[in-house]
Amino acid sequence: MATTSDIRKGLCIRFNNDIYKIIEFLHVKPGKGPAFVRTKLRSVSTGRILENTFSAGHKLEDVRVETRSYQFLYPEGDTYHFMNTDDYNQITLPESSLDAPKLLKEGEVVTVLFNTEDSMPLSVDMPASVILEVTYTEPGVKGNTATNATKPATVETGATVNVPLFINEGDKIKIDTEKGAYMERVKA
């Protein structure tokens, strides 16, 4: 059993007859009244997002998880194929178990969380950032780079990211997988 003080990002808990992964949390200590924790939970079975508030000291049933490294092979409809980097076994996971499927490039190594009770895969943790090549973007206008303006750019996985005006087609950029936002241009 865990309590609200044990809440952290990525913790898997059993709640409302389902397993949820905590994706955001905020401890609140108001000046008047008891403390509480606001959480944003994602169901590992359906991918549905749920917001819930737990009072301070509330008991939570945590799910013991095991992490393993898997390499992303290819998408097929709504399922994604992964290969274990140790024993080369392959698994398929639904798109709902991935945090940012549009930023997943073939060959990328991710961490898959498994329930230790029944060895079922729960969710996929992406690396903190990925480096992708820009395949399409409008050219920047000369002299318009002094402002903090951005433009949409399509990367090699098909995702669209807002980038600064100086980014051109063929540039490699670093993208924050949690927010899906541009971080920096990467020199080749």
TrEMBL record:
Pfam families from the UniProt entry? EFP, EFP_N, Elong-fact-P_C
Tell me the ranges covered by the Elongation factor P C-terminal domain, including all copies. Answer: 130-185
List the Gene Ontology MF annotations in alphabetical order: translation elongation factor activity
Q: Which UniProt keywords apply?
A: Cytoplasm, Elongation factor, Protein biosynthesis
UniProt-listed InterPro entries: Elong-fact-P_C, NA-bd_OB-fold, Rib_uL2_dom2, Transl_elong_fac_P/YeiP, Transl_elong_KOW-like, Transl_elong_P/YeiP_cen, Transl_elong_P/YeiP_CS, Transl_elongation_fac_P
Which domain of life, per UniProt?
Answer: Bacteria
- Compartments it resides in: Cytoplasm
Question: Single Gene Ontology BP term?
Answer: peptide biosynthetic process
Q: Does the keyword Chloroplast apply?
A: no
Pathway where this protein functions: Protein biosynthesis; polypeptide chain elongation
Entry's Gene Ontology cellular component terms: cytosol
Task: Enumerate the spans annotated as Translation elongation factor P/YeiP central domain.
Answer: 67-122
By sequence similarity, the record places it as follows: Belongs to the elongation factor P family.
Tell me, what does this protein do in biology?
Answer: Involved in peptide bond synthesis. Stimulates efficient translation and peptide-bond synthesis on native or reconstituted 70S ribosomes in vitro. Probably functions indirectly by altering the affinity of the ribosome for aminoacyl-tRNA, thus increasing their reactivity as acceptors for peptidyl transferase.
Stated name of the protein: Elongation factor P
* Gene that encodes it: efp
